[in-house]
Amino acid sequence: MNDVLAHSQAWVNGTLTNLINPQTAVYAADLYQGTDPSKLNFAERAWMDWYLYWGNPILATGIMSFVLHELIYFGRAIPWIIIDSMPSMRKYKLQEDRTPTPEQQWECTKSVLLSHFTVELPQIWSFHPICEYFGMATHSVPFPSVLTMLWQIGIFFVFEDTFHYWAHRALHWGPLYKHIHKKHHEFSAPFGLAAEYAHPLEVFILGSGTIGGPFLLCALTKNLHILTVYVWIVLRLFQAIDAHSGYDFPISMHNWMPFWAGADHHDHHHMAFVGCYSTSFRWWDHFMGTDLNYKRYRARQAEAKKQAKEQGLSWPTKEATKNAKGMPLKKKAE
Ligand SMILES: [Zn+2]
Ligand SMILES: [Zn+2]
């Protein structure tokens, strides 16, 4: 206790004096009652310092969540914007002839930012109290072991993918599609930034699958640290942005992990408007037969690519692309 108080007072006496008053320091020290800072590693001390710095766990979690989300979302989207501007990358584009214009990217960025600041920010603010309600460890240290984090994140991936498959399929039902999901389908050739380009209700509904797994696991086991949830959300953001990138490289995950969906899968969903409803994995679409159109199309595309090579045509070419598009793709929403 005294160690923590001293640690906390060090903040007060340091350059942050004007941000934390001594009463806050005492309150913050209460937060870490029974924690011995000398037994913590660098990352755990930094975590503790963050909560001591703000002196208010709701504020500390809220700011961390929001900043993390913005940094990862736009940080991951930027490499895709650069790749879109490189003609040498066109050969890896899934819809060969369709690259987003800077105007489309800017419109999408404005809409996503507006949604982040108006719809998501208030929700992020309520994140800490909800986590505490379910008994999640938030400010506390030490962190869970890597092994614990791994199996918990594995469960979140499977839970989210299942939730998303059925909720996304439901969103393709006429009235729900028309009033909610249509916005996300405005870009039939998606790009990284478009991952969260959606109606606020869709963000809420499909976001429940991302955060619902952690809350459920926590309610059942009382064994979950918010750091594990952050790592999961970062991986989920990478998954969502990459799935919308519009590119398939030889090193892309689904090429060496066949059950991983990736851009190859979700790009077809945007192009065809039906089928391929999952996020991370392919099994639901495979077992429910909602990927048959996709499989046929990719087979034709591979054949067209092969023929182009045999005929000495460079890929993509207008002729070769036309060969791959021999089937009706647009159907009305289910
Ligand atoms: Zn959809
Ligand atoms: Zn999408």
UniProtKB/TrEMBL annotation:
InterPro entries: Fatty_acid_hydroxylase, Sterol_Desaturase_Related. GO terms for molecular function: iron ion binding; oxidoreductase activity. Its main location: membrane. Residues 305-334 are annotated as: Disordered. It comes from the Eukaryota. It is found in: Membrane. This is Fatty acid hydroxylase domain-containing protein. It comes from Ceraceosorus guamensis.
